[in-house]
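FORM 7B: Structural annotation worksheet

SECTION A. Query
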Amino acid sequence: MLFATKLRSVLYDGERDCHSARQKSPSIQIPFKEESPKRLYSTHPPNTVIRTHQQNTRAISMATSIQEKLKSKNEAYATSFDGAGLALPPAKKYVVVTCMDARIDPAQAFGITLGDAHVIRNAGGNAKDALRSVIISNQLLGTTEIILVKHTGCGMLTFKNEDARGIVEKNLGAEAGKEVSILDFQPFPDLKEAVKSDVEFLRASKVVSDKANISGWVYDVETGKVDQVV
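SECTION B. Predicted structure
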């Protein structure tokens, strides 16, 4: 009790002193001094892109045409939105793993109604990249079927790891190149074999239920048709 009384007394005296000091002392404003280009180039190579705080702020504050379209289209979408009250777990208890390719519309191509399924997308529809989300879908949210869909004309068929690493280093510099030097971009030379390999990976995984129904497919971007591989 004695300690608490002393503590309150100290806190009160400190607050009173700070308040008094604020009343007596004029506010001090420290002007922002931007580093000159000479200083920047003294620590960075001439061809290095310098991203300052001010540049980032301007980039964030200026809405792009894409952002403007997103807002206008969303306003129209929201006026007739009727998806309120859907349950968190997908109603049909399945998850689709597919590629991020802009030519694929999973909802339309695979007949997915809002609230029915999870859709996980990444470069190549890669099972290893998708595993974290697959685990959450399967173990935490109760999905019982996994449909993996790759597609014709996939960009992952067109390069090797060393190609991607070289492009990153050329575009972004040596530090970026070092960062991706051990990154596996998961390219593949054969489409159907990649589907089979990913399905085998998921079936063998100890973190995916062995009761899950797992199948592998190829979507043709030229015809819109799917073909089951596994």
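SECTION C. Observations
Residues 105 and 111 are 10 Å apart (CA to CA). The first helix runs from residue 2 to 24.

SECTION D. Sign-off
Analyst initials: ____
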